[in-house]
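Input:
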Amino acid sequence: MDSVVNRSNKFLLFLIGFLLIPGNLFSITVRAKLYSAKKDQPERNLSIVIFETKKTFQTDKEGFVNLEFPAAGEYTLRLLRDTGMQELKFNATENESRTIYTDKINIPKGGIVVEGDREKTVASRTKVRYEEIKRMPGTFGEALRALETLPGIIPNIGFGGGANGIIVRGADPNSNTFLYDDLPILYPYHLDGLTSVIHNDLIKSIDLYRGAFPANYNNATGGIIEIETVDSVKTKKGAFQTSLWNTTAYSATPFSDGKGYIAIAGKVGYLDKTIGASGLLPDGIRLPRYNDSQIKFVYNFSSNHQVSFYNLTAQDNFALAATTNQGNDPTKDPFGSFAGGRFNIGQSFRTTALRYTWTPGDKFNNRFTLINYDPITQFNIGLGSIVGKRFTRPAYLGLRQDASWNITSNIKFDFGSEYRQLSFRTYGEEIFLRDPTNPSPNPFNTSNPDFLTRPLNIKGSSSYYNLYTTIKLKYGNFQFEPGVRYDYIEAIKNGALGPRATLSYSIPEVLNGLILFGSAGDVTRFPGNTSFNSQTGNPDLRFEKARKTGIGVEQKFAQLYELKIEGFRNEFRQTIVDDPYISDPIGLNPDKSQLATQPFVTNRPRNFSNRGSGWSHGYELLFRKNSKTGLRDWFGWISYTWSQSFQNTNIYQIYDGDTFQYSSLERRVLAEFYNNSKEQLAVWDRTHVANVIYGWRINDEYQIGGRWSYLTSTPIQPIIGDDGGRFVNPANGLNYWNPKYSNNPFSSEYGNVKRGRDFHRLDIRIDKFENYSWGYLNWYIELINIYIRKNTNGESFDNSRPFSATNPIPAETFGTLVLPGNQVIPFFNIGMEVHF
Amino acid sequence: MKKIFSRTKEMSYFALVAIVFSVINCATEDTVAINDAQSQIYSAAKFAADKCNTPLPNPPLLVVSEPIKRNLDLCTIAITRTGCPFLGYPLICTLIYLDKDSGDIPWWLNFNGFSREQIK
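Output:
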C-alpha cells in the first residue's frame, strides 16, 4: 500500500513537473531490479542515490525500484549500505526494465578491487562510519573517541593516562582488544588521553563487538574494537591538520595503474611546548610527548593475489619532577607533599606485518599474515622509599592464517590458525610492599619502610598458538553461526577452549526489517606482560575467562532509521589479580643479589593468581538516524545503557577486630581455603549512561554538531580519616597525611559505596570549509562543556593537610578553563585541516 | 540559501554569547562554608596539639563568616607548621576574617618563619 501511495505521489509530482518544465519531456524512468550475484538474492530495502540529481530511491522487498533520470546519459548510482557506499555507473537510454547486478564493479585498467566488506554478526555489534564520527564534538577531532557514545560503553572521563580505555559492558578497561586491520596495537590513545594513535583519514569504519564476538577474534574479556582502514585509493590525496597540541599529516597515492596504493600518516604531539610552556601549570610537570606513524602498502599482482605491508608505531612519555625548592606561598605548591619525588613513564609499540591474500574466486579466500609485534612499557619512580625503574618488552613474531569459504549460498565456513614465538624481557627493579595487606602504605616511612625494592632480570621465550572456526548457516530467514576457538600458551602450559554461537531470525515484512537475535559464548584473555615468569611471578597462571550472553531486537524503519535494544549478562572468571598470599613452599631467591648467600627461600611469593571474579548485567538502547551517504544530510543517535558491574578479588582480608595472632603459615592456609572478601561494585561502574549525538552538514561551507552526555558517577571507597600525619617528607620537612579507609565489612562506609554528583556536559563543534581547486580547508572550533558544569570524578585527598570536611573534596574533571581573576570559560579547541 | 546562512550566523552568535556570558558571570572569589572551614581549622589544630602534647589553645579560633579559600588554606598550613608549644594560633590566621584574597605573599616574607608567630 505504501509503495502504491508512493508511486501515485511520484506520478503527481511527475505530472506537475511535466506541465511546468519542458525539459522533463525527455525524462526517463527505468524499472530496475538490483540483484547480488554473489549472494544469489535481490538487494532488498536498499537506498539508492542518483548522484547527479541527488534523488533518493529505495528497492522493495523483491529488489525492484523505479529510477527517474532527467535525460538519457550516463549516471552514477550510489548504493547506501550499512557497511558503506558502493558506486555503480548506469547508462540510461530509454524507458525500460533492467536488472542491475550489484557485484559488478568498475575495475581500473590492470587493477583489481578487493571487496572488503564481509558479512558481520548482527548481535552486540555496532558499526560507525568515519563520516559520522570524524567531526563529533568533544572528541578533539579523534574519531576513535566517538566509541564512547555507543551503547554498552562507559567512557573513562578525565584527562591523561587514566582516560585511556573504554569500559565495554562492565568489563575491566584493560581487557579490550583494539585491532587495526586485524593487527594488534598496544594502546589506542596517547598519554594525553585525548589523541588516538591512528590517523583519522586512514579509518574507514569502526566495529565495536560487545558480546560473544566471532571466533576469529581473541584476547579480550571486554570488547573487540576493529578499526578497518581505507581499502582503496583511486587518486592522490593528502591532509594536514594542526591544533594546540598536535600536528598530523596524511598522504596516499595509487601506483602501477591502480594496481596498488600506499598510504602514510603520522602525528607529533607537543603539549609540553604549548600548554606546558604557558606558565599555567605547576613547576616540574613535563606534559606528554608523543608521536605515531602508520604505513600501509597494498599491491595486487593479479585478481587472485594481493600483498600488503603495514608498519605501525607509537611512542609516548611523560615526566614529573616535584621541585624541592619550597615556594614561599604553600597554596601555590601543589606538589609540596611529593617534593623531591620524580616519576616518568614511557610506552611504545611497533607492529610490522606482511600479508598475502589469495582469492582464487568468489567462493574462497585465504590470508597469511606475518606479524612482528614489539610493545614496550617502562617507568622510573623515586618518592621516599618507593624507588625503582623497570623495562618490559613482551614481543612476538607470529604467522597467522585466515580463510573464508562459501560452500553454498547458505553455508559459509571461516577457519584460521596462528603461531607466535614469544620473546619476553623484563629488567630493572621490582618494588613491593613489606606487608602486602597494608591498605595505606606510607612512602615516607624511612625508619621501617613500607616499600622495598629488589633487582629484577627476567628473559625467556615461549610459543603460543590458536585455532578457530565458525560455520555460518542460513535457512530461510534463520541464521545460525556456531564457532569455537582454542588458545594455548606453552609457558603456562594452559589452553583455553572458547565455544560461542549467534542465532538470528529476520522478518523483512515488518516495516523495513526486523531482526531478533541472541548470542552466547566463552571468551578468553591473557595479559601481555611477564606475570607468568617463574622467578617473581606465577608460572601456573591460566587464561582469564568470561561467559557472555545477550539477546536483542533490531528494527529498521523509514529507510534511514533504526532502533536496537539488547540485554546482556557477563560472568568473569579466573581474572588475574595481585595475590599477597600465594607462594611456592620453596623456590629460588627472587632477589638475585642474594643468590650467592641465600639461593633458596621458603614461601617464595608468586604475587599473582587467578582468584578474581566478577559479573555485570544491563540493557542497551540505540535509536539512530543514518545520513544519506554522499549527500548533505543530518544524522544522529540517542544511546542509553543501564548496567551494574561487580568484582571480587577473592583474596583473604584481615578486617578490624580480627586480633587473633596467626602464624604466617596459618594465614596462608586461611587465605587458601577461607574466602572472606566482599563483592564490590566495580570502580568503573556507572548505572546510567546516555548520549545524544547530532550532526548536520548545513551547506558547502558549514557543518555543526552537538553532543550531550550523561553519566552516573563512579563509586568510590570513602576516606574516613587520616593516619595522623606521622611521617615527614625529608625533601622539605613537611608532614605527610595518608588517607584512611574503613576496614569493617559491616560498616556502611566499607568498599565502593559512595558516589558523587552525576556528570553531564554539552559540547558543540562548528566547522567551516573553504573550497579550492586543489582541495579544501577545514577550520573548526570545539566548545566543551558549553554550560560550564563543574563535573567531578571521584575524590582527591590533599596529603599536605589532615582529613577534615574540606579534605578530601570531589575531584573536578577538565571541561572548563579558569582565567586569571577566577573567570571560568568552556574548554575549547581550535584547529585547521588542509585536504588536498 | 540565505536562510541557511543566517541560521549559521545565528548559531555562531549563540556560541559567542554563551562564552561571553560565562566569562562575565563566573568571576567570583572561592569561599568555604563556615562549618567546613571550622572543621579544616580544627583538624589542623588537633594535629598541632597532638604533636606538641598540649591541649587546644583557648580561646578557640572561631570562623564567623565564609572565609576566602586561599586565606583559610594559608591559616591551616600555618597551624600545621607552627612550633611547639602550641599555645595560640598563628598570626596569619587573621586572614580568615578578610573578605578579599590576601594576594601574593611578598618575596621578603618567610612564610614558614612567619607562621610560627602565634597570638597567645
